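Q: What changes when zinc ion is included in the input?
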Amino acid sequence: MSSRARAARESITRDIARRGAFQYRGRSPFQMTERKKSGSPPELLLTNCREILTLRGPAPRRGPALGELEIIRDGALLVRDGRIAAAGPRRRIENLRESRRAETLDARRGVVLPGFVDSHTHLVFPAPRANEYEQRISGASYEEIARAGGGILSSVRGLRKMSAAELKARALAHLAQFAAHGTTTVEAKSGYGLDWPSERKILLTMRELGREQPVEIVPTFLGAHAVPPEFRGGGKSADDYAEIICREWLPRVGGNQLAEFCDVFCERGAFTVAQSRKILTAARACGLGLRVHAEQLSRTGAARLAIEQHAASADHLEKISASDMRALARSGVTCTLLPGCCFHLGLAHYAPARALIDAGAIVALATDFNPGTSPTLSMPMILSLACAQMRMTPAEAIAAATVNAAYSLGRYGRAGSLEVGKFADLAVFDVADYREIPYYFGVNHCVLTMKRGRVICSREPRC
Ligand SMILES: [Zn+2]
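A: The predicted holo structure follows.
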């Protein structure tokens, strides 16, 4: 790591420490019995849980099933080799022979739920864009700011100049905050590079981050995030750029397993349905799963395209029609809703979550963490917005942020619910009732986050 990158990392770490928001990988304040000399013991007993929201059962969840949390009251959970070995009433689990020799972690009457699966983020970016935030408050629209050289392209300029080490240090600090808010799996998109060396730099940074810190990263290639400046005039067009993505970049992404998914920003001012179709078709041929930024600022037909292409997810959907909704409800496409975006942009119109759920669509929630339209990494805040602005119940919002999000990322077999055999990815909230998680908007009551049976973040509960 260069000295500049090290200095950047240290300053970010100092900044976080000053804010005192959490202790990352620090000493657990939870009462633990003495560790065995052989290192991390294979068995761990998490007990004294007021509620365990198991969310056990089949996925994806549609309609009324979305609100079924399958709660164990006064429960305990036994973890063996990073996976859940048993979950049930406290007395029964504590009396298991294995539990008696396990290391004990006291949840202090907290509410335990599966770690959040944030299925839509733009994790790796160079800097915040608070200046645009102020411009928007003064009346400029997101599209006007983009036309004036701001928006995604200003992040692109910054990212191309920034070293991989510096980008990584920034993303690492963000991942620590994701963990502090109870998130254990994060989908992360490229898309602020828009030339091959820069897109590759982002994807390799995500790969390194996935190996070096505990939050699981699901990488997505989003070369079609915006049309880069080199393809705006001078005889070159968005069609030429789409052609390069298909012919040159996607085979490299697929061949080197740099990403699991390919995403396209199918939107007015970005990529047309025809260009998006071409890119998605090429991506599938390279072995990638598909995701689509669809119907956010205008209705383009992107949701129909996602259905036609059997995409894993269509994201945003603020501008869908009633017939789009019916088609999505009949499909296997997850509707990933991103209320943080509407909130930050000050928009009155949110995606029609209630109607989508009632029609039987698969609904998930995510932060859309990015510097332009949704600078939050707090899933609890997203739950608050989903409940207050989109009329989802607290139970539906929690299931959308765990089980259904894991399903959309192909992770349901190992994450998204607390069931025997799955990874012990979970979060403990210092609340008396799970409904208090969205109820206290803008307040983080997550006191412990566990990934594969290991405590990755913890802090003292409130007195
Ligand atoms: Zn996005």
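Observations recorded in class: The chain is about 40% helix and 20% strand.
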